[in-house]
TrEMBL record:
This is AraC family transcriptional regulator. It comes from the Bacteria. The keyword Zinc-finger does not apply. The keyword Nuclease does not apply. InterPro entries: AraC_XylS_family_regulators (IPR050204), Homeodomain-like_sf (IPR009057), HTH_AraC (IPR018060). One of its GO terms (molecular function) is sequence-specific DNA binding.
Length: 254
């Protein structure tokens, strides 16, 4: 069953917010910077090469292209999810931030303030201020150790992100990464959570979602993100998103 997504009203256009509920295991690649707070339910979650036990009140930070994978869930989970346009340079430091902060972790204070303001229906000025403070908190983490990622995997991920719509061979990716394809596949899956081909596929679907939200006709989106025909695009989109491109586009008409 696809997640249930309820848009939340906001007095600002700087970011968007939804209430996101799911009772099944979920695997996804983020198409924007998201800061989520778990409101209900506990689950086991994989991100950035680490397994996290997630409880209500936890803050989850994910950036454009990040993979998140549920490993176990015993009850329905509800999160409040705030999404920013991840194409702005000011969010680069978010990649250095821990993806999980427990409820009592003081590093999450600015994020909790942002979520509280969204929950309480705050005015535009308040929302803009707490959003700025939350984003500024990323830059205060420069002295923290970044999540370790082998250089070969970083190079491979950068290539796939840059050329996600192209037909990339494993040999080409491995050559760019400076390693052999067998070591790359093991390291890539261990760090990213998906093999290179599956990561590229989900990047294509994430980009397709953005184009559909922006109003591009569904019939044109598949080819623009690298699918060779409409049936292939529809099949993969339906499997990953849980609905067809056309229905997704209608649901996001402005």
């Amino acid at each position: 069953m696809a997640p249930r997504i309820e848009p939340l009203p906001l007095a600002t256009s700087r970011f968007s917010a939804v209430r996101w509920s799911i009772d099944e295991l979920h695997v996804g690649v983020k198409d924007a910077l998201t800061i989520a707070r778990v409101e209900q339910g506990s689950f086991t979650w994989w991100s950035h090469g680490t397994v996290w036990e997630v409880e209500p009140g936890a803050i989850l930070v994910q950036n454009l292209g990040d993979v998140c994978r549920d490993l176990a869930r015993v009850e329905r989970t509800t999160c409040q999810v705030i999404t920013f346009d991840a194409h702005h340079g000011e969010f680069d430091q978010a990649r250095r931030h821990p993806p999980h902060l427990g409820e009592s972790d003081m590093r999450g204070a600015a994020f909790h303030a942002l979520h509280d303001a969204v929950r309480d229906g705050a005015d535009a000025l308040t929302l803009d201020v707490v959003a700025a403070e939350a984003l500024a908190s990323f830059n205060r983490r420069k002295d923290e150790v970044a999540v370790r990622c082998p250089r070969a995997v970083r190079r491979a991920v950068a290539l796939v992100r840059e050329r996600y719509a192209e037909s990339l061979g494993l040999d080409e990716i491995a050559a760019h990464a400076g390693t052999d394809k067998y070591h790359l596949c093991r390291a890539f899956r261990a760090r990213i959570g998906l093999p290179p081909y599956a990561y590229q596929l989900r990047l294509r679907v994430s980009r397709a979602k953005n184009l559909l939200r922006a109003g591009m006709p569904a019939a044109h989106v598949g080819a623009s993100v690298g699918f060779y025909d409409q049936s292939q695009f529809t099949r993969h989109f339906q499997r990953i998103v849980g609905t067809s491109p056309a229905r997704f586009a209608r649901a996001h008409e402005r």
